[in-house]
């Protein structure tokens, strides 16, 4: 979609910004539109690199006056729908974080990453509920729920949210909490950024310093044995232990440990966050004994600040395609299907096919919004493949479709907001991320706060009058 913005209106906007605005062809446009996921190419009509709430308000008003939609990007880890032809607000210059050690809370700006907060919170022995990598934006992560290796014990970060400052579709700034705008507060904690642009977010922190975590890594030929043992073991674990298994096709890069370089492996991974990290070692012992000598055993004491070492996610921008489904169980039939599509001799082009355990506090969302559908899924499966060229992307997308087909009998049909892939956030998939009664409330909120669907470049909850 081609949208041309008049020079004079653009100059008026620019004069009122502390940040910068870039139209197509202008210097800075490509850089400010580029996402971490290089496969998510966006062509906004204008990109505004915001320096604060006032810039965001100006950008939203400008978009509305021009009849344009608004998208927002902190890192570009989670572009659900490319902001083509809209006004993209880039928040990457807003990375301020402030910790209140007495109240045990953090307030972070729109573009802050978990890695920014870790430094400030750990000095007080406090920790936020980060995901598998600390290079994801905190606000975007929380808008979709947000869970990681502390999830089964502490739940989604959205459930720890206590307050947000939000620029609404009218370009107004409102403070949203359980006391002020309670219904909007409920919807914001998982509503995927559908109701406005968060300028800053406040949430609870927890006293966490050292954990017990790591990986037991085996040759992929052992996948069935590992999955069988994992299915039995994980069913009995306390909520303090969050776990997963992943098929990995490790790239042959010199930076990676020699025993793994260029190998296809299966890893059993986890993290224990109970009071005494040593108890985690006891919990892992049966797996060590049953599965025998691994290629690598990295389980041990892990400082909270080093938790990225458990998932080993890539840090630098990369082109990737991904797809996720929720599973009802890891039955022998499900395991057979997984080994068939990702095990030895499968020819899988995926870098990773991971199955993470759910349950615990991720299920007990109480009065908070769940972003994982109706509930009842025991595991979430997530496949990721490299997509540096359109041809690679095509091959990976086709393979992900094959994985989806092979595991269909074991899927619950629910989806998870944060794992909805680029271009894959269809009305049906978004609907499947919420319980029906929650979706009704979310649509009512959208009707009230964004009836024109200004905020549409996301995992979109359309207003009831919109064409679906
Ligand atoms: C390598 C990798 C690992 C991941 N691991 C996990 C994990 O362990 N657990 C998990 O839950 N998720 C995980 N995710 C998913 C991730 O949390 C989502 O993609 C999230 O949306 C990323 O947020 P971002 O701001 O970094 O990305 P962006 O692409 O910048 O933003 C994504 C979306 O978030 C919303 N958003 C961002 N900023 C704002 C704002 N200021 N106001 C309103 N809405 C906003 C918008 O809808 C935007 O389109 C992972 C993703 C990747 C690529």
From TrEMBL:
The keyword Mitochondrion does not apply. SUPFAM superfamilies: FAD-binding/transporter-associated domain-like. InterPro entries: BBE, FAD-bd_PCMH, FAD-bd_PCMH-like_sf, FAD-bd_PCMH_sub1, FAD-bd_PCMH_sub2, FAD-linked_Oxidoreductase, Oxid_FAD_bind_N, Oxy_OxRdtase_FAD_BS. Pfam families: BBE, FAD_binding_4. It comes from the Bacteria. GO terms for molecular function: FAD binding; oxidoreductase activity. Gene3D superfamilies: 3.30.465.10, 3.40.462.20, Uridine Diphospho-n-acetylenolpyruvylglucosamine Reductase, domain 2. Keywords: FAD, Flavoprotein, Oxidoreductase. Residues 40-208 form the FAD-binding PCMH-type domain. Its cofactor is FAD. The keyword Oxidoreductase applies. Belongs to the oxygen-dependent FAD-linked oxidoreductase family. This is FAD-binding PCMH-type domain-containing protein.
């Amino acid at each position: 979609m081609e949208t041309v913005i008049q020079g004079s209106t653009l100059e008026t906007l620019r004069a009122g910004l502390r940040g910068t605005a870039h139209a197509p062809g202008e210097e800075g446009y490509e850089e400010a539109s580029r996402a971490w996921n290089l496969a998510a190419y966006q062509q906004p009509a204008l990109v505004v690199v915001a320096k604060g709430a006032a810039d965001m308000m100006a950008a939203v008003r400008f978009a509305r006056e021009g009849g344009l939609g608004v998208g927002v990007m902190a890192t570009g880890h989670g572009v659900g729908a490319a902001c083509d032809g809209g006004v993209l607000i880039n928040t990457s210059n807003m990375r301020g974080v402030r910790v209140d050690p007495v109240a045990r809370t953090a307030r972070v700006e729109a573009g802050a990453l978990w890695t920014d907060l870790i430094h400030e919170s750990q000095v007080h022995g406090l920790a936020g509920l980060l995901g598998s990598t600390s290079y994801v934006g905190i606000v975007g992560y929380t808008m979709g729920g947000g869970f990681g290796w502390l999830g089964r014990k502490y739940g989604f970060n959205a459930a720890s949210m206590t307050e947000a400052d939000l620029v609404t579709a009218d370009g107004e700034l409102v403070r949203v909490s359980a006391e002020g705008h309670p219904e909007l507060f409920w919807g914001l904690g998982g509503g995927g950024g559908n109701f406005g642009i968060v300028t800053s977010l406040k949430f609870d922190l927890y006293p966490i310093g050292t954990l017990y975590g790591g990986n037991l890594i085996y040759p992929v030929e052992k996948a069935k044995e590992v999955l069988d043992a994992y299915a039995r073991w994980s069913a009995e674990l306390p909520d303090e232990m969050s776990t997963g298994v992943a098929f990995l096709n490790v790239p042959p890069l010199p930076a990676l440990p020699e025993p793994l370089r260029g190998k296809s492996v299966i890893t059993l991974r986890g993290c224990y966050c109970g009071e005494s990290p040593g108890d985690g070692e006891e919990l892992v012992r049966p797996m060590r004994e049953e599965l025998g000598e691994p290629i690598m055993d990295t389980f041990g004491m892990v400082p909270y600040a080093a938790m990225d070492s458990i998932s080993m996610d890539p840090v630098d921008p990369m082109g990737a395609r991904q797809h996720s489904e929720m599973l009802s169980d890891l039955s022998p039939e499900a395991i057979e299907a997984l080994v068939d599509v990702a095990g030895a001799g499968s020819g899988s082009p995926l870098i990773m096919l991971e199955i993470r355990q759910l349950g615990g506090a991720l299920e007990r969302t109480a009065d908070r919004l769940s972003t994982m559908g109706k509930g009842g899924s025991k595991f979430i499966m997530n496949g990721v493949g490299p997509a540096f060229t359109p041809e690679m992307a095509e091959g990976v997308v086709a393979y992900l479709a094959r994985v989806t087909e092979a595991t269909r009998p074991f899927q619950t049909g629910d989806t998870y907001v944060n794992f909805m892939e680029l271009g894959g956030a269809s009305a049906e998939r978004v609907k499947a991320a919420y319980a029906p009664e929650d979706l009704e409330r979310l649509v009512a909120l959208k009707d009230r706060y964004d009836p024109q669907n200004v905020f549409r470049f996301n995992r979109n909850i359309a207003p009831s009058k919109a064409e679906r």
